[in-house]
Amino acid sequence: MLHLAIKGEINCLLTALRLNKRWAADGRFTDEISNLIEHPMTKTLKSLSKYLGKRHADIDTVKVVSPFVAVICSAQTTGQITARALTSLYNFLLYGLNTAASGRSDACMALVAKGITNCRFEDTRKESDESVLVKLLELITLTLKCDSGLLLKEKDAYKMFLLCYRVGCRDKASELLRSNADDTLARLILSFFGSKQEFSIFPSRNQVPLVDTSSTINFRPAVLVMNFLCDLVCAPQEVRSSCILALSLINIMLEVAANTLASCPMILSILQRKLCKYLRAPPVEDLTILSLRLRVIFNLFNSMKKHLKLQLEQILISTHLHILGDLSSSPDQQEIALESLLEFSRESSILLHLYVSYDADLNCSNLFEDLFISLANSATPLSRQPMNLLNYLAMDCVLEVVYFVSCRCFSSNQYELLPLSVDDAIICNGNPGYSLCNLGIEWLKTARDSTAQMLQQRRRAKKRRSLAADYFNAENKWMSKVESLGILPVNLSAKLVAQFLHENPRLDKRRIGELLSKGPQDKYPFHAAVFTVPRLHVVT
Q1: What is the pTM of this model?
Q2: DSSP 272
Q3: Which of 45, 188, 381, 510 has the fewest CB atoms lying closer than 10 Å?
Q4: Domain count along the chain
Q5: Can you say whether the dihedral through the CA atoms of 327, 329, 331, 333 is positive or negative?
Q6: Looking at the domain assignment, is residue 458 inside a domain?
Q7: Torsion angles phi and psi, residue 525, rounded to 5
Q8: Cβ atoms of 481 and 465 closer than 8 Å
Q9: CB 475 within 8 A of CB 452
Q10: Residues 215 and 155: beta-carbon distance below 8 Å
Q11: Which residue range forms the structural domain that includes residue 113?
Q12: Burial class (CB in 10 A: 0-12, 13-18, 19+), 388
C-alpha cells in the first residue's frame, strides 16, 4: 500500500509540473527522442515511479524523498508546485515512510530538513504565497513530532525554529500567517523542551558533546533557542510583537522543563546574564508585556530560586515592590502586580524560601517582611474611601500569607502538606538523634522546632547588624553602641573592626572611606592598623 501512496504523490507532482510550460516542453509530442528535451526533475520523478514498479521489499527512503526535495529547493518553481511537493513530504511522514528502524533513516531526515530550510519559490500573489508558507509550517511541526524526528540534527532543528520566526516576521504578512507561525513556534518549544527524550536537552552517550570544541559553537536547540529568545527581549529597540512572542515562549519553556533547564549550566548562565538583567529593568507601561514579565518572574521563583537567589531578590524589589510603592503606578499595573503576588502567596514553598533565604540571611534584604508590609499597606484604603478591587486583592494576599504562617506554626495535621525544606533536612540530618529514613510526625515537629529556633537566632542577629549599621552611618561615636549590641567585643582589635566593615553590606561606603583615610599614621594608629588588614582592601 505504501508503494501506491508514493506513486500517487509522484503523479500529483508531475501533473503540477506539466501545467507549467517551463517544466513541460511542447516538443516532447513531436520529437523522436522526447526524453532528451524533458526536464531533469520530471525525469527523476519518472525514474522513481519505475523504481517503485519493481516492488522492492525495502524502499530506499532517500531515493524516494530526493526528487521532492529538489523541487522544493528550486528557485524556479512556482508556489503551486512547491506547495504540492511540501504536501507530498507531509504525507510521506504521515504514512510512516521513514522510521527509526528504516534503512538510511537519518540521511532521509537530514534531506527533509534540507528541503524545509532551503525552500524556494517564485513570488506571485500574496494569498498563494502565504498558503505555501502555511504548508511549510505544517511540515515543520510534523517533522519534529513524528517518531523519526529524534533523528534530526540539533542544528537542523534550530534552523527550523529560526525559519518559523522569520515567516511570522515577513513584511506585510497577514494576521493568519503570523498566528500560524507563532503557534508553530510554541509547538517547537514543546518538542525541544517538553519531550522526555534526552535529545531535547542533553546528549546521550552516543551523541556529540554539549559543546563542539573545534568551533566552540553549541548546536543544542535548548541553549540556542533560549539565547535567541533572551536576545529578543533584551534588544535595545525591541519590537513589541517580538518581545511578547519571546516572553510567551520563555514562559512555555519554564513551565514544561524548568527542572531540567536548571541543571544545565549554559542555560543558567544565559538566564543570569541576559534575562534577569532585562527583568530588573523598571516596569513597562505596556500591560501585556508587564503581565508576561511577571509571569516569567513567578516561573523563575517557582523552579530556579536556588540558582538565581541574588538576581531574583533584585527583580522582586524592582518590579512588584516598586509598582506597589510608586504613587505614579497606574491602577492597571497595580492590579497585575497584586494578581502576581497572589499567586506567589499561594505557593508555600516560595513563601518559605523568601523567609529562609532572604529574611534569615544576614547579607540579604528582608524580602518577606517588606513584601508583607507592602501588601498590608495596599490592603488599607485611603482615608474615608471605600475598599476597591486593589484593596481586596491585597487583602487576599495577606490572608494567604497568614494562613501559611498559621499552618507552619499551629496545625500538626498540616505537616504532610508542608514538607521539610532542603535547609531543614540538612540541619536535622546533622543531628544523630534523627534519621532521614524515620519520617514520623513527631520527628517532623521536632525538626521544624529546631529549625525555627535557628531562624529566629538569625533574625535577631540580622536586626542587631542592621542597627549597628545605622549607628555607624549616623554617628561618629559608633563603636561603643556597636559593642553594646554584642557585635564587637569590648577589647577591640583592628582585625575585628576590619571584619565588621567588610561583612556588613549596609554600611555607608563614604563613611568607611572617611574612617580609613584618617591620618597621619602616628596620630591615628588604630585607623591605620584597620586599613592594613589585607582582607579590608576588597572593600576599598
Answers
A1: 0.79
A2: I
A3: 510
A4: 1
A5: negative
A6: no
A7: -65, -35
A8: no
A9: no
A10: no
A11: 1-152
A12: exposed
Q: For residue 12, is it within any domain?
A: yes
Residue of higher predicted confidence among 153 and 38: 153
Nearest of 234, 240, 214, 210 to residue 222 by alpha carbon: 210
β-pair partners for 212: 217
509 within some domain: no
Reported confidence tier of residue 393, pLDDT bands at 50, 70, 90: very high
Q: Dihedrals φ, ψ of 212, to 5°?
A: -80, 105
The Cα–Cα gap between 475 and 479 comes to 9
| Model pLDDT for residues 450-483, shown as the tens digit of each residue | 567 777 788 888 888 888 888 888 877 788 788 7
Unique residue bearing C-alpha cell 518553481: 77
Q: Can you tell me the distance from the alpha carbon of 86 to that of 166, in angstroms, rounded to the nearest whole number?
A: 18
**CB distance 185 to 245 below 8 Å:** yes
Query: Looking at residue 200, what is its pLDDT?
Result: 42
Q: Rounded distance, CA 186 to CA 161, Å?
A: 10
What local confidence, expressed as pLDDT, does residue 423 receive? 43
Above 90 in pLDDT, residue 331?
Answer: yes
Q: How far from 118 is each of 88, 112, 176, 277, CA to CA, in Å?
A: 16, 10, 23, 36
How far is CA 119 from each of CA 139, 334, 522, rounded to the nearest angstrom?
A: 12, 47, 81
Nearest 5°: the CA angle 128, 133, 137 is 150
φ and ψ of 217, to 5 deg: -105, 130
Length of the chain: 540
Rounded to 10 deg, the angle between the 441-474 and 422-429 helix axes is 110
User: pLDDT tens for residues 198-221?
Assistant: 334 334 333 433 333 333 333 367
Q: Is 59 helix (H, G, I), strand (E, B) or coil?
A: coil
217 forms beta bridges with 212
Assess if residue 172 is contained within a domain. no
Residue 509: the pLDDT is 86
pLDDT by residue (tens digit) across 333-357? 999 999 999 999 999 888 888 988 8
User: What are the distances in angstroms from CA 83 to CA 19, 118, 122, 288?
Assistant: 14, 14, 12, 36
- Identify whether the C-beta of residue 188 lies closer than 8 Å to the C-beta of residue 164: yes
Kindly provide the b/e burial profile for residues 470-493, where b requires at least 16 CB atoms within 10 angstroms of the residue's own CB.
ebbeeeeebbebbeeeebbeeeee
Q: How far apart are CA 323 and CA 317, in angstroms?
A: 9
Looking at the predicted structure, is the pLDDT value of residue 137 above 80? Answer: yes
Pair 115, 89: CB distance under 8 Å? yes
476 in helix, strand or coil?
coil
pLDDT digits (tens, 9 = 90+) for 400-418: 999 988 887 765 444 433 4
Closest CA to 154 of 110, 215, 104: 110
Which backbone phi and psi does 501 adopt, to 5 degrees? Answer: -65, -35
